[in-house]
Amino acid sequence: MTAYDAIVLAGGAAKRLGGADKPAVSVGGRALLDRVLGVCRDAGRTVVVGGRRATARPVVWAREEPPGGGPLAALDAGVRQVEARAVLVLSADLPFLGERTVQRLIGVLGTSGQEAALLTDPDGRDQPLVAAYRTEPLRRELALLATEYGSLSGLPLRLLTQELDLARVAAEPLASFDCDTWEDISAARARIREHGNVLDEWITAVKDELGIELDVDTGVLLDLARDAAHGVARPAAPLTTFLVGYAAAQAGNGGPAAVAEAAGKAAALARRWAAEAEGAAPESGPAEAPGSAGPAGTAGPADPGQADAG
Q1: What is the b/e burial string over 72-103, where b = at least 16 CB atoms within 10 angstroms of the residue's CB?
Q2: Are 169 and 103 in contact (CB under 8 A)?
Q3: pTM score, two decimals?
Q4: List of the chain residues with pLDDT < 50
């Protein structure tokens, strides 16, 4: 089962944030909602339940009745808009949720034959708002709960999950970390600036900001930047990587292969440049064809009297 729709719950009063618009709070330069939308970009249809706002990619909007009626009311509003046989359900405050976790949830749902696949946090607690559900059982249980209680407003999520046949998926570290307080927000902002995380976070943020979905080998580009900075001059690094991107775009599809090819050519040039500075290449030969240079020891351009001697 690979086809799925997504429901992202972006309502709630955010009382522990002093009533702030939590989905719009920035972590790593991106709104929390946009970070979550980024990990479910493969969804056929993405429904956001909550107040309308600008988002990084197109979504379908829905609103629970009554507004602020809680997660089950929000789920009911969202599931009315989905079309796929599987639906991914996420809250909008998960800064570290990754696409790999989403794929695991959808994969387990498809292979297990069960009605839902829930993430469990490191303490073993179920996370029903980081989960994949079969659409029809989800609709069925929401309808039964609405009939039994007269309304879904204010009902706890456990009433839903206790009636479903569940598969459980152990969370990767921080996958289920959510931001309920300003302390959580501060911790998330600090985490993405740690040495092991900051580069991936920055590249992802730039791609989202520019509307780019290209996955390239950033290690190749970093090596190129290092070679250009070392072998030519420090400002050459950013300019060279820019030119590589431009060349890849000009090459046609501008995909990962085009970037790799352009980066390889530029890296080779940077190494030749550095070799000349270190005296490892003939001083007479900028880009001469093989065999065109004079014999070893021939005077270079600094000796004009012998420049044409052959």
Answers
A1: bbbbbbbbebbebebbbbbbbbbbbbeeebbe
A2: no
A3: 0.76
A4: 1, 281-310
